[in-house]
TrEMBL record:
Native organism: Sinocyclocheilus grahami
Name of this chain's protein: tRNA-t(6)A37 methylthiotransferase
Gene designation per UniProt: cdkal1
Pfam families: Radical_SAM, TRAM
Keyword annotations from UniProtKB, A to Z: 4Fe-4S, Endoplasmic reticulum, Iron, Iron-sulfur, Metal-binding, S-adenosyl-L-methionine, Transferase, tRNA processing
Principal location listed in the UniProt entry: endoplasmic reticulum
Location of the MTTase N-terminal domain: 1-53
Residue stretches making up the TRAM domain: 312-374
Keyword Ribosomal protein: no
Family: Belongs to the methylthiotransferase family. CDKAL1 subfamily.
GO cellular component, one term: endoplasmic reticulum membrane
Radical SAM core domain: residues covered: 81-312
Lineage per the UniProt record: Eukaryota, Metazoa, Chordata, Craniata, Vertebrata
Topology in membrane: Single-pass membrane protein
Coiled-coil blocks: none
Length: 432
């Protein structure tokens, strides 16, 4: 909202997209602005063009085919990858839950899955364009296919057939209820050499009372069952999770149960969120935990998380890692091992996009550092030369600026609440 106002004060054109404008299109700060709904992203080019002309456009409708709601923009639309080595594929939109704190459900609605054949074709095309790593994303990957008569394991077994040797597949977030019935199959998939042994399973709270108020549709024992089962059968697996501190009605005892869960499992990746009441959600109408208590609990949980180091015992190991991106400080390349643990390697161009063996010589809270093994084979998983940065997938030699006609005198801001650059590069339609 502040960015929008600042842009308008500077006489710049603004296009707002994402879940918030979709769920609350009548919000005051959206007045007279162009707005794109979550299912209209494939029309961003024409909306930008209209905004430049001074027109206000609102596209917020739901797309349907034969009376059935579609999952979103077509998967075969041209796009520009933020990283030419990584393809991000949304397998479904919406979800089956009705969490009391969530605004996304208001915007994205019920589950709508893409057909398996379309997802497989998108993966196949990605590898033909030099991609060596695929991320599957959605609001809940575990619920995939329930609306179209299939399931997540069925999709994954088809996808792994397309993954070249040395390339890797990373699964996205799945809520506990929808993974419980697939645990045996998921173990076999996560053991596959071309699938990272990594799963993001949000618990949000270890208190069943809080989970009930959240309407999460599982209890803490369900989360423990998922975690224990996977850890026993996929040794070394990385389980990442989310926790909300200070949800309405959370008592000291409720919070202590969450603290004990973290002490027991020592999650290497933990996303800690201080509860914020989103307008229009049931949780916003509940009796709130005082702000100072929410802040204190967030601080205590963060301190616990930072008190342990998950990778110190791995110093001295020899690991095979896939090198895909630059580190935040641009001093290293970032690679990941089989368990999707971050390994920093020397910034040597010949390593980028390759699978290499490294010796771990240092470990921090969120990373390890690896030294490439001398005379070890460097494996190239890509079956084609990766696209140049900024090159359009499916439309070679066409740049983002050319397709969007942004090299004009009037600046344009395209906004989203979070991950603006990732949203722009991963979701822009370049040819509609």
């Amino acid at each position: 909202m502040r960015v929008s106002r600042k842009a308008q004060e500077q006489n710049k054109k603004v296009v707002v997209a994402g879940c918030v404008p979709q769920a609350q299109p009548r919000t005051e700060y959206l007045k007279d602005l162009s707005v794109i709904g979550v299912q209209q992203i494939d029309r961003v080019v024409e909306v930008v063009d209209e905004a430049i002309k001074g027109h206000s456009v609102r596209l917020l409708g739901q797309k349907k085919e034969k009376g059935k709601r579609l999952g979103g923009a077509r998967l075969d639309l041209p796009k520009i990858r933020k990283n030419p080595l990584i393809e991000i594929i949304s397998i479904n939109t919406g979800c089956l839950n009705a969490c009391t704190y969530c605004k996304t459900k208001h915007a994205r609605g019920d589950l709508a899955s893409y057909p398996i054949e379309e997802l497989v074709e998108r993966a196949r095309q990605s590898f033909q364009e030099g991609v060596c790593e695929i991320w599957l994303t959605s609001e809940d990957t575990g619920a995939y296919g329930r609306d179209i008569g299939t399931d997540l394991p069925s999709l994954l077994w088809e996808l792994v057939k397309e993954i070249p040797e040395g390339a890797m597949l990373r699964l996205g977030m799945t809520n506990p209820p929808y993974i419980l019935e697939h645990l045996e199959e998921m173990v076999r998939i996560l053991q596959h050499p071309r699938v990272y042994a990594f799963l993001h399973v949000p618990v949000q709270s270890a208190s069943d009372s809080v989970l009930m108020d959240m309407k999460r549709e599982y209890c803490c024992a369900d989360f423990r069952s998922v975690t224990d089962f996977l850890q026993q059968r996929v040794p070394g697996i990385t389980i990442a999770t989310d926790i909300i501190c200070g949800f309405p009605g959370e008592t000291d005892e409720d919070f202590e149960q969450t603290m004990e869960l973290v002490r027991q499992y020592r999650f290497p990746s933990l996303f800690i969120n201080q509860f914020y009441p989103r307008p229009g959600t049931p949780a916003a109408k509940m009796e709130q935990v005082p702000a100072h208590m929410k802040k204190q609990r967030t601080k205590e949980l963060s301190a616990l998380f930072h008190s342990y180091k998950p990778y110190d015992h791995k110093i001295g190991e020899r690991q095979r890692v896939l090198v895909t991106e630059d580190s935040f400080d641009s001093q290293y390349y970032v690679a990941h091992n089989k368990f999707y643990e971050q390994v920093l390697v020397p910034k040597k161009p010949e390593l980028k996009g390759k699978m290499v063996e490294v010796d771990i010589y240092e470990a921090g809270k969120h990373y390890m550092k690896g030294r490439p093994v001398e005379d070890a084979q460097v494996f190239t998983p890509s079956i084609a030369q990766p696209l140049q940065k900024g090159q359009v997938s499916g439309l070679p030699q066409v740049s983002l600026l050319d397709r969007l006609s942004l090299a004009r005198s009037t600046p344009v801001f395209i906004l989203k609440k979070a991950k603006q650059s990732e949203w722009l590069t991963e979701k822009l339609s370049a040819g509609v």
